[in-house]
Amino acid sequence: QVDAVRVYVNSSSENLQYPVLFVVRQQKGVLSWQVPLIFRGLYQKTYNYQEVSRTLCPSEPTPETGPSDQIIFVDVASMAPFNIAYELLVTRLENFQLETNKAFNFTASPSQPQYFLYKFPQDVDSVIIKVVSDAVYPCTVVSVQDIVCPVYDLDHNVEFNGVYQSMTKQAAITVQRKDFPGEQFFVVFVIKPEDYACGGSVPSSIHGNVNRTWNLQRTKNLQVTIVPSIKKSVYVQAMFFSFLSFLSFYLGSVVVAFVHYIRVRRKASAGRLSPEDGSGIMTSSHPITASTPEGSSYGAIDESSSSGGRQLSSPERRPPAGSDTDSSVEEESDFDTMPEIESDKNVIRTKVFLYLSDLSRKDRRIVSKKYKIYFWNIITIAVFYALPVIQLVITYQTVVNVTGNQDICYYNFLCAHPLGVLSAFNNILSNVGHMLLGFLFLLIVLRRDILHRRAMEMKDVYTLDYGIPKHFGLFYAMGIALMMEGVLSACYHVCPNYSNFQFDTSFMYMIAGLCMLKLYQTRHPDINASAYSAYASFAVVICLAVLGVVFGKNDMWFWVIFSMIHVLASLALSTQIYYMGRFKIGKCYLGIFRRAAMVLYTDCIQQCSRPMYMDRMVLLIVGNLVNWSFAIFGLVYRPRDFASYILGIFICNLLLYLAFYIIMKLRSSEKLLPIPLFCIVATAVVWAAALYFFFQTLSSWEETPAESREKNRPCILLGFFDDHDVWHFLSAAALFFSFLVLLTLDDDLDVVRRDKIPVF
To answer: Ranges of Low complexity compositional bias (predicted)?
Structure first.
C-alpha cells in the first residue's frame, strides 16, 4: 500500500504584495506555492485563491527497508511587515490508489488539484481511464504521468509531462503497460481557471487594470473508473473479420463469373447464341444484318447505304476491330477539325430525336484511347496527392506521441484502440474495404475488357453496331478512385481534425464526378469531356474546398463569391448539355449565358411552346433548382463543414442524374436484367444502412476537443469497431454496388442496334 499525504492551507489575506510562502521538503523533492495562489488566464487576467490543497509526492515502501515513517518539513514565511493569519492541515489520504473496475468520486478545483495512483494488474496489458461529470463547466484537464516527482498538477504546468486531454462532461484515455516501465502511473485532475479552452465564453480583454483578481469557487465533482481494455486476441479477430468480410465479395464474383461461363457454354452447345449474351460480352461470330427501320433517326448507320453521312469502311480497308495500337495518324483532330464533319455534327446533334448511332460515329480505337487517359491521369494524381498526405499525417501522429497532447486529434476515445505508433488503429483498419473492393472492381472491369477484345477480334465489322460502345477507361479510373478513397480516409483517421478533413473527401468528389461522366458517356460517347478538362474541374473544386476550410467559417464575402460561381457554373453546364455541346461561344464566355437566356425567352416566354428537347429541359430545370437551393442554403447558413457541403452537392447531382437515367430507360421500353436490378436494390439498402451509421456523430472537429468528447461512444462491433467504422464497411460495399450498377445497367441493350437506342 502506497501512503500519500495532502497539505491544506488557508489564509484570509488578499494582499498580493505580501503573500504567504509555503515550502514542503521531502526526502526526494521540494514543493512550494504561495497564498493567495495566482492563476493567469487569457488577456493576462489573474485569478487568486486563498485556499490551496496539494498532494505530496508519495513514498512507496521498498523490500529492503520495509515500512518507515516519513519526515516532512513545512516552512512558512512572508515578507509582510504585519502579522498574517493562516491555517495549515496535513492529512493522510485513505483512497490514493485506484482499483480496477471500481468507480471513485472526488472533488477538485483550480487551487486544489487531485491525482491518484494506479498499478497494472498482472493479467492486464492495457486499460481505459474513463472520467465523467454531471457538470459541463468548469473546464478540466485529465493527465496521465509517470511515477516521477514532482507531479505537474497546476494549470500552468500540467502539459509539461505525460498524456493529457481537456474535458467537460466526459474523457477517456487508453494507457498501455508497455509505456510505463514501472507498470504504474499517476492520474492527474486539474481544473482550469477559465472555460474558453472547453468551448466556454471567452473573457473580454482588459485595458489598464490587468492585475484585477477574483475569488472564485470553481469546484467540480468527478468520477473516475479504470477498466481493462481489449486483449490482443480481439485485434486478431477484428483483422480476420475485416479481410474475410470483403474477400467474400471476391468469392461471390467468382461464383457469378462461373455461372455466366456455364450459361454461355450451354448456349453455344445448343446453337442459340444471340449477337451478344446480355452481359456486356459479345459471343456470336455471325453478324445480324437488318435494314434501318422505317422512321428511324436521320444519320443512323445503314449497311446498305453508299452515300450521305459517314460511311463504314469495308472490312478489307478497315483495321482489325480489336486493334488498339498507337499510331501518330490516329488523332481525333483528324476527324473533328474538318469543316464538313463540323457541319455534319451540327446537323446530327441538334435533331429533335437522337439515337446512339448519331453520337458514336468516331473511330472506336481513338475514342477508347481518349478514355484511357482518365485511368493513367488518376494514377498520377493519386501518387502526387497521397505521398505528401501520408507524410503530413505521420507528422501529426508523431507530434501527438511526443507532446502527449490528445486535443490535436478528434478520435472517439471510448473506442480508440492503439497499435504501434497509431492511436486509433480500428479507424484505419475499417478502410480496408475500399481498397479490397476497389481492386475487385478493377478485376471485374479487366475481365470484361479482355473478353470484349477477344469477341471483337472474332466478329465481323458490321456487328460493332450493337449495344452501348464499350469503353472501359472511366471504369478503371473509378476503381482506382475507390482504392484511393480508402487510402486517404485511413490517412485522415490517423489524426482526424479540422485541418486535414479534405483528405477524406477529395477522392469522394472525384468518384461522384467520374460516375456522372460515365453515366453521360454511356449514350454520348463522342461528346463526353476529355480527361484533362474533367480533372482540371476537379482541381478547381478541391481548391474551392481548401478555401472554404480557411475562409468559409465566418467570411460572408467567400460565400457570396462561391454561390455566384456555383450558379453560373450550373447555367453554363446546362447550356452545354442542352445543345450537346454544339453551339459557338464566340470570343466571350458570356455567350453561354446569352444563349441560355435566349432559349428561355424563345421557348418558354415568346412562343409559350413545348421546348425542342423536352426531356433534357426537365432534367436541367430540376438540376438547376437543386443547385440554386444549395447555393442559397450555403449563403444563408454558411455551414462550417464546407467539404461535406460540396460533397453533398456532388452526391445530390449524381443521384438526380441516375434517377433520371433509369426513369428514361424504363420509359423507352428498355428492361433491367437480374444482375443490375439486384445491384440497384443492394445499393439502395446498403446506402440506407450506411447513412444511418454515418449520422451517428461520435466526434466533431467543428467544436472544441472537450465538447467533441461528449459525443464519444463505446464500440458496437466485436468490441473493436465503433459506428463510424461500420460506416466505412458499409459505404465501401455501397460504392462497389453503385459501380456495378453503372457497369451492368445497359447490358440488356447488347442485342439492340445503336440506331434504335435513344439518347437522353
So the answer is: 304-314
Measure CA of the first residue to CA of the last residue in the chain; give whole Å. Answer: 80
How high is the pLDDT of residue 486? 94
For residue 141, what are the β-bridge partners? 166, 190
Spatial separation of the C-alpha atoms in residues 313 and 319, rounded to whole Å = 9
Rounded CA-CA distance 177/123 in Å is 11
> What is the chain's mean pLDDT, rounded?
81
Please list, in sequence order, all residues whose beta carbon lies within 8 angstroms of the beta carbon of residue 70, skipping any fewer than 6 positions away. Answer: 3, 5, 26, 27, 59
Query: Residue with C-alpha cell 504585519?
Result: 82
- In this predicted model, which residue has the larger pLDDT, 437 or 611? 437
CA angle 49, 52, 57 (to 5 degrees): 145
User: What's the chain's Rg over C-alpha atoms?
Assistant: 35
Got the DSSP string for 552-605? TTT-HHHHHHHHHHHHHHHHHHHHHHHTTT-S--TTSTHHHHHHHHHHHIIIII
C-alpha cell at 78: 512572508
pLDDT at 310: 38
d(CA 443, CA 452): 14
- Burial class from Cβ neighbours inside 10 Å (0-12, 13-18, 19+) for residue 308 reads exposed
Nearest 5°: the CA angle 473, 691, 539 is 40
pLDDT of residue 580: 65
Given a contact cutoff of 8 angstroms between Cβ atoms, the answer to whether 351 and 529 are in contact is no
C-alpha cell read off for 47: 485569478
Options 3.40.50.980, 2.60.40.10, 2.60.120.380, 2.40.50.100; CATH for 4-64+71-200+215-229 is: 2.60.120.380
CA distances from 526 to 243, 313, 314, 512, 518 (A): 41, 19, 22, 21, 12
The CA distance from 309 to 361, in Å, is 10
Query: What is the residue extent of each domain of the chain?
Result: 4-64+71-200+215-229, 231-264+374-546+670-759
> How many other CB atoms are there within 10 angstroms of residue 191's CB atom?
23
Amino acid at 520: Y
470 backbone dihedrals φ, ψ, rounded to 5°: -90, 100
Identify the residue whose cell numbers are 453521360. Answer: 520
465-482 pLDDT, tens digit per residue, is: 778 888 899 999 999 999
Model confidence at 593: pLDDT above 70: no
Interaxial angle between packed helices 473-494 and 432-458, expressed in degrees from 0 to 180 and rounded to the nearest 10: 170
Q: Distance between CA 130 and CA 172 in Å, rounded? A: 5
Between the alpha carbon of residue 702 and those of residues 17, 26, 549, 707, the distances in Å are: 43, 46, 11, 9
The residue assigned the cell 470483403 is 246
The whole-model pTM stands at 0.82
Q: Which of 49, 189, 165 is nearest to 108 (CA)?
A: 189
Residue with cell 488577456: 43
CA distance 646 to 641: 9
* DSSP track, 285-338: SSPPP-PPPTTPPTT---TT--SSSPPPPPTTTSPPTT-----TT--THHHHT-
Backbone φ and ψ for 479, nearest 5 degrees, come out as: -65, -45
Mean pLDDT of the region 27-31: 83
Question: Which is more confidently placed, 454 or 496?
Answer: 496
For residue 402, how many other CB atoms are within 10 A of its CB? 8
Q: Phi and psi of 307, rounded to 5°? A: -155, 160
Nearest-CA neighbor of 29 among 48, 49, 54? 54
